[in-house]
Write a structure and sequence with these properties.
This protein is 35% helix and 18% strand. It is α/β, with parallel strands linked by helices and 247 residues long. The chain has two domains: 16-45; 50-240, 2-Layer Sandwich (Double Stranded RNA Binding Domain), CATH 3.30.160. Strands 1-6-5-4-2-3 form a six-stranded mixed β-sheet, sandwiched between helices. Helix 2 (83-100) links the parallel strand 2 and strand 3 (104-105). Helix 2 (83-100) runs parallel beside helix 4 (187-202). It is globular.
Amino acid sequence: MAYSNRRWRVKRSGSEEEAMNSVTGKRGAALRVRIGLLVLLMAGLPAMAKVEVDFNPDLDFSQFKTYAYIGGVEHLVMLQLNPELINDRVHRAVQRELTKKGLREVQPSENPELVVRYWANSQVQVNVAATGNWGPYGSYLGTYWGFLYDTMSASSTREGMLVLDLIDAKNKDLAWRMYLVRKIVKVDKDWKKADQDFRKGFESYPPSAKQIERKKEERANEKPKPEPMQCAVGGMDATAFPGWRRE
């Protein structure tokens, strides 16, 4: 006797179909409610801070015994904050962390081995760093330093970014850089968290032997980026940086 491959369906009554649709609809509605609650919960969470460190793997960091703090780069401290207050907070954090590392603070006129500066951008101004007056030291936004800078600036469009530079004063070259991406609206309220980020960043100063080897491998696989062009007025040519637009 031959059997056909026809699929047999159980025919449900109208009431059974209505009951099944009702159950399916309730499940779908419950799922949509859960997803909606999850979205609301995530929207209410504060943005996570991001801390990254970059450094020159060819330097002997044990040679640095003194440093001078020169504060924020002129016209590049663009956070909507009291500049003197934020400068004082950064200075105190630097003093605490570098003192723990055995470095001694001196005046800029006393031939420091490291020069410490910072610059900061609000979330709407993060792409204009190229236009700043950098003074006697460069921007260090090209060569191997440009890779992490591009990554961090792209991820800081909502929070804003503070960058701390440790510069080899003798060679006028960047030695170590820390990026801190965090939204700071009220210094008194938000700085405690930012201060913890400073502590986290300085855990990588000086870099360990393992970190140095990893950085050397990383740079061996990267092609140095060109330094930003200088414009006639002595600032940086902002058109070299995508996303920048003149106000």
